[in-house]
Amino acid sequence: MELETPEAGAGQVRVRVRAAGVQPYDCAVRAGWTPPGVAPGLPKIPGNEFAGVVDQVGSGVEGVFFGAEVLGFGQVQAYAEYVVVPATHVTAKPAGMPWEVAGGFTAGAQTAHIALNELRIGPGAGSIRSWARSDQPGLIQQPGPERPKGASQQRPGDTLLIHGAAGSVGTVAVQLAVLWGARVIGTAREDNHDYLRSLGATPVAYGEGLLDRVRAVAPDGVDAALDGAGGDALDVSLELVKDRDRILTLVEHDKAADLGVRLTPPLRSAERLAALVDLYEKGDLRIHVRRTFPLERAADAHREMETGHGRGKLVVLID
């Protein structure tokens, strides 16, 4: 599809996209869902995470410059040669970070971090300023979100159950939780168990008997659960975790309110992203890219995403 090249307005930057991550969110957009705040109608281009080179800077933008290599986020439009986003939605791409990793970094990493904050695992969003980078060439730090009201600070030693632990959000959540002192139990297919062990998690197989298998490896109980699988996984979490306020689902949105469990709030920020990139640079966080696709095969990427199987990230590359 040929469209006019978008122009950066006031406070915005235009990025020549090199890579864009693929998510279930994108599949929903392709199927006709309109995200909140996005104009209805067609064309509607999927893609809400990307990496590329800034090639136009709108008026009033400070600290983001022409030619800067960045990674960032929006709501839609990233499956394209160019995307326009607020300048506050990008952060610097390290020179050593491959484009495919940068393109698939933003959504999974930020979703995992936000979810763990909601579950009261880790230092919390309010402390991002203490561990964010301050030396980004071509960029300045933006104010980050405060930790949700009533949430406590880091709880090292908690046992965290992560369903779908080998997925793009799950793998980051495992690494962050382990880094912050939690014991992690991760559910996944058996062919991903060695991978989860390499990240520091205790793997448990999906399927019938899941509740008993988790109890066998966590005889003292489970303090919190992150559901990235839905269905029986959420039921098991409800059985194991006493405090429903420490259960969060990424999948069962329609059930969350009735069950009294959490969803991830929209708290993505450039500052949060920069802090996570810093962890990547330090070697504390790694991103597994399962497969890449050229832009003209984005439909194949969606077909693979919709199988619900596989380890790590799918990424669309744009020449």
From TrEMBL:
It comes from the Bacteria. Residues 1-316 form the Enoyl reductase (ER) domain. Keywords: NADP, Oxidoreductase. Coiled coil: none annotated. The keyword Oxidoreductase applies. Residues 135-158 are annotated as: Disordered. GO terms for molecular function: NADPH binding; oxidoreductase activity, acting on NAD(P)H. Pfam families: ADH_N, ADH_zinc_N_2. This is Oxidoreductase.
